[in-house]
Amino acid sequence: MRLLKDLFENNRSWAKREVDADPQFFARLVAQQAPEFLWIGCSDSRVPANQITGLMPGEVFVHRNIANMVKRDDPNCHTVMQYAIEVLHVKHVLVVGHYRCGGVAAAMEPQTGGLVGEWLAPLREVYVRNRAELEALGPEQRWDRLSELNVISQACAVCESLEVRQAWSRGQELAVHGWIYGVQDGLLRDLNVTVANAAEAVAMFA
Q1: Active-site residue, 98 included
Q2: Active site (annotated) includes residue 77
Q3: Does 42 participate in catalysis according to the annotation?
Q4: Is residue 101 among the annotated active site residues?
Q5: Is 20 a catalytic residue?
Q6: Is the model's pLDDT at 32 over the cut of 90?
Q7: In this predicted model, what pLDDT tens digit does every residue of 166-186 receive, in sequence order?
Q8: CA 166, CA 162: separation in Å to the nearest integer?
Q9: For residue 1, what pLDDT band results from cuts at 50, 70 and 90?
Q10: Where are the alpha helices (DSSP H) in the chain?
Q11: How far apart are CA 44 and CA 119, in angstroms?
Q12: Does this model's pTM top 0.70?
């Protein structure tokens, strides 16, 4: 049980299926990583980036954390963004939240403490800024709407990041998108916050 043999067997079966379908599959992966997309999403196990978008390994660069946060003081996230933008030259940054997010639910509970509570502090600020709208909704609708507002807030944070601002200033083709995923139906939804340059970012998030 400690060795998780089933997972190794699953891995071998998967690798064999890929090679049977395309003998050059792994050779291409070794030769080049050239994704057009950076996915910044939630760590939730129900939200696998490649499967949701129908993309193959090598086609999407992924960063995940609790509640798809983009924090100024998170070197992990910003290192991923810098590498994706400056080295891989991705053309799209996808900030993707999801409905029924446990992190969003925790942010609505004042007693959440420890590292999780600290991590979710900016999300609580989103709640406070939008309290009137959110508290006029029922519990499930409030949960869903805060998930959407969080995506918009994090897309704004991506646009304000040094990595993205520098890319735009040197004329690099780069768009930032805010999407949300429905775990209840498997569908992505565009929250209509796509921006492709600094002027659009100012107009969108001012």
Answers
A1: yes
A2: no
A3: yes
A4: yes
A5: no
A6: no
A7: 999 999 999 999 999 999 999
A8: 6
A9: low
A10: 5-21, 25-31, 49-53, 75-82, 102-107, 114-119, 121-129, 131-135, 139-160, 162-169, 198-205
A11: 15
A12: yes
